[in-house]
Each structure stands twice: as structure tokens, then as C-alpha cells.
């Protein structure tokens, strides 16, 4: 089995700068912040013949899930808490569980 080292691709300072470890979603936005920019260096589902066949399904599901949540709730962190963006190692790098406050709109 041949697999790409996606961690290395997504942490290459040539494309992401020396702060690739820092969560900065603005990397994927246009300068005016109104459009999402697709980077050819961001390949979480791999590329080519070995790309994930479920990519389209996964992207659609994630979009619909968050759309439904954000339409019905205001989401925030509990007062005095900060988000922890360090990941947990496993088969991949997953976010740690977070406490969130959801208030009905």
C-alpha cells in the first residue's frame, strides 16, 4: 500500500509558513474574507488515483451538519474558557473534546 504523508504536506513551511501548527482559518479566505480559496497544497482526502472516493459525500455531510447547527443555535465557548486547538494523536490527528454553549436562536 502506498500512502502520502499528509501530515508533512500540510505542515510544509514552503506553502504554509513557519506557523503551520497554528490554527488560522483565514489561510483559506480571500483577502476581503468573503470567499473560500481552494489551495492545491491542502489535500486532506489525498489526490489522484488514491484519493478518497467518499470526499464529496464527506464534504456535503459536514456542510449540512454545521449549516443546521448554526441556523438553529448561537455557538460560543463557556465564559472564561479558551479553545484548545492541540490535537490528540491516533490514526490521525483529531481535535480534543471541547465544551461549547449552544443557545437557541
TrEMBL record:
Q: Per the UniProt entry, what are the Gene Ontology biological process annotations, in alphabetical order?
A: hormone biosynthetic process; progesterone metabolic process
Enzyme Commission (EC) number: 1.14.14.1
Q: Recite the UniProt keywords alphabetically.
A: Endoplasmic reticulum, Heme, Iron, Metal-binding, Microsome, Monooxygenase, Oxidoreductase
- In this entry, which stretches build a coiled coil? none
The protein's enzyme class: oxidoreductase
A cellular component annotation (GO) from this entry: endoplasmic reticulum membrane
In the bilayer, the protein is annotated as: Peripheral membrane protein
Compartments it resides in: Endoplasmic reticulum membrane; Microsome membrane
- Names of required cofactors: heme
Q: A Pfam family name for this chain?
A: p450
UniProt GO MF annotations? heme binding; iron ion binding; steroid 17-alpha-monooxygenase activity
Query: Where is heme bound in this sequence?
Result: 52
- Primary localization: endoplasmic reticulum
Organism superkingdom:
Eukaryota
The record's comment on protein family reads: Belongs to the cytochrome P450 family.
Q: What is this protein called?
A: unspecific monooxygenase
**Lineage, highest ranks first:** Eukaryota, Metazoa, Ecdysozoa, Arthropoda, Chelicerata
Amino acid at each position: 500500500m502506498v500512502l502520502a504523508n499528509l501530515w508533512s504536506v500540510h505542515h510544509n513551511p514552503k506553502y504554509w509558513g513557519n506557523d503551520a501548527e497554528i490554527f488560522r482559518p483565514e489561510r483559506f479566505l480571500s483577502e476581503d474574507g468573503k470567499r473560500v480559496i481552494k489551495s492545491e497544497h491542502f489535500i486532506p482526502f489525498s489526490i489522484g488515483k488514491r484519493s478518497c472516493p467518499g470526499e464529496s459525500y464527506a464534504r456535503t455531510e459536514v456542510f449540512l451538519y454545521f449549516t443546521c447547527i448554526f441556523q438553529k443555535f448561537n455557538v460560543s465557548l463557556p465564559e472564561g474558557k479558551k479553545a484548545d486547538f492541540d490535537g490528540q494523536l491516533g490514526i490521525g490527528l483529531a481535535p480534543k473534546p471541547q465544551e461549547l454553549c449552544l443557545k437557541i436562536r
